[in-house]
Fold this protein.
Amino acid sequence: MPFRLIPADTGFYDLFAKSAAHLVEGARLLTDALDESGDRAATARAMKEAEHRCDDVTHEIVRKMNSTFVTPFDREDMYRLTAGLDDVMDDMDAAVDYLYLYRIAELPPGVADQVEVLRHAADLTAAAMPRLRSMHDLEDFWIEINRLENVGDQIYRKSLANLFSGSYDALTVMRLRDVIEQLEAAVDSFETVANIVEQIAVKES
């Protein structure tokens, strides 16, 4: 890690970890939203509250960066990581919104599989954020996230093929496609976070 004459504010690491912890909560709520017999309205409200808490952490990080002279690593990378974590939460929040607003009675199998990918990615990201402090043992994180993104791509393509198989009416296709594409966007956002972490680790090594 580069030598600095002035100590960097290490409180940022706790904030990144806090942001990632909200992603774990978001992935759990997304799983709850798959249950058509559950209270999707309540789940959507809880998800919106979780998204607002994640936004609060995002704003706190930005304010702290704007008032801190020396940051733990490159300021631009910190902005990118902050925005990347926030994007994941926004994508999952949008997926829950679609599930609630469209009142989809039955979801194709690929949706549950994709949400499982997101839950795994959220757990990995939450575990990785505290390791930014030392920049050690992070390689397995971005390798596994990239693998999960490949799995997510396969699920996405199969889900689209199933969607356009003729088994669904046109309106249902439109609704399910919004859900499927939003889940794919969330998986891609997790990969973006992993790529940013890799770039930070390479710079700081």
Observations:
- The CA atoms of residues 65 and 134 lie 20 Å apart.
- The radius of gyration is 18 Å.
- The mean pLDDT is 93.
- The first helix runs from residue 11 to 33.
